[in-house]
């Protein structure tokens, strides 16, 4: 369980980056944070593993106020895939995936077995192991990033635009694979995305952020049937339009 109570964040020149956030993520939930650029999504996510500290308020993970935890220990039990935090270029794929287990002092044979298991989970061949990150495609590197985040068996996964820079097919494939992994491993996932279609398809709860606040928390069905305001309505307009366009196209196709 992740619990935000009255959480605020201010930076020197920007006093209202986050204004009083209250929300919960229950065990096993897949929650998406969505909203316009600059609305505070990445800041919210980074508060959960203490990459950023709140200005006020309390964040609990599994009941414990994280301000009282050791941030390094906290980060080792939470997996995170952030765009821009890439793989270590001079380490092999096996070394990249095994980095957290190694820091946690796992025996070498266990790490080796775990690396094999994870490559299988993210659907890459075991022959990748000895390669360097630059010898893989962007999509394959994102899969390795995912494997690395899962290596020490975290219960919670934080993902900031993890599928962002990929071509649409690879992106859909990886998102679908992650959705299966989330269920199989009974993870709790918080995903930051710009893409409402992705949020609607992947998550069971969507948190819509706007200008440092939350404008709606609800299931995909709820957002589609009862958007709380014009901000949410604008965000669901594009997936709605695409559904309409595709339906018309299919109808035309069936008439040929
Ligand atoms: N270190 C910082 N110092 C000052 N302001 C910051 C800092 N980090 C973020 N901000 C500001 O806080 C606000 C929220 O940033 P954040 O990165 O959380 O947005 P975001 O919703 O993730 O945006 P995007 O979709 O573009 O990634 C922005 O206005 C940003 O300029
Ligand atoms: Mg961001």
Secondary-structure-derived class: alpha/beta
Strand arrangement in the largest pleated sheet: 6-7-8-3-9-10
C-alpha end-to-end distance: 52 Å
Mean pLDDT: 93
Question: What can you see in these coordinates?
Answer:
The structure is a single chain. The chain is α/β, with parallel strands linked by helices and 256 residues long. The chain is built from 10 helices and 10 strands. The strands form 2 sheets. The protein has a 6-stranded mixed β-sheet with strand order 6-7-8-3-9-10, with helices on both faces. Strands 2-1-4-5 form a 4-stranded antiparallel β-sheet, covered by helices on one side. Helix 7 links the parallel strand 7 and strand 8. The structure holds adenosine-5'-triphosphate (ATP) and magnesium ion. The site of adenosine-5'-triphosphate (ATP) has 12 residues, from strand 2 and helix 1.
Task: From the structure above, extract its key features.
10 strands, 256 residues, single chain, globular, binds magnesium ion, 25% strand, 4-stranded antiparallel beta sheet, alpha/beta, 10 helices, 6-stranded mixed beta sheet, binds adenosine-5'-triphosphate
């Amino acid at each position: 369980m992740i619990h935000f109570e009255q959480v605020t964040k201010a930076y020197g020149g920007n006093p209202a980056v986050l204004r009083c956030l209250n929300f919960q993520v229950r065990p096993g939930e897949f929650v998406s944070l969505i909203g316009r650029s600059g609305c505070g999504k990445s800041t919210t996510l980074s508060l959960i593993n203490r990459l950023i500290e709140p200005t006020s308020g309390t964040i609990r993970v599994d009941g414990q106020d994280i301000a009282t935890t050791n941030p390094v220990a906290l980060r080792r039990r939470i997996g995170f895939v952030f765009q821009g935090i890439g793989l270590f270029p001079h380490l092999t794929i096996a070394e990249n995936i095994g980095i957290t287990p190694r820091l946690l002092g796992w025996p070498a044979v266990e790490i080796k077995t775990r690396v094999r298991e994870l490559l299988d989970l993210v659907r890459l061949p075991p022959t990748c192991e000895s390669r360097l990150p630059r010898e893989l495609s962007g999509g394959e590197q994102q899969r390795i990033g995912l494997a690395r985040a899962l290596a020490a068996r975290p219960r919670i996964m934080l993902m900031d635009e993890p599928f962002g820079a990929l071509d649409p097919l690879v992106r859909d494939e990886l998102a679908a694979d992650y959705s299966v992994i989330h269920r199989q491993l009974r993870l709790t996932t918080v995903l930051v995305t710009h893409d409402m279609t992705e949020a609607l398809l992947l998550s069971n709860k969507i948190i819509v952020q706007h200008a440092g606040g939350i404008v709606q928390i609800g299931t995909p069905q709820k957002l589609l049937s009862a958007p709380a305001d014009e901000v949410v309505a604008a965000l669901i307009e594009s997936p709605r339009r695409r559904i309409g366009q595709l339906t018309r196209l299919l109808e035309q196709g069936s008439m040929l």
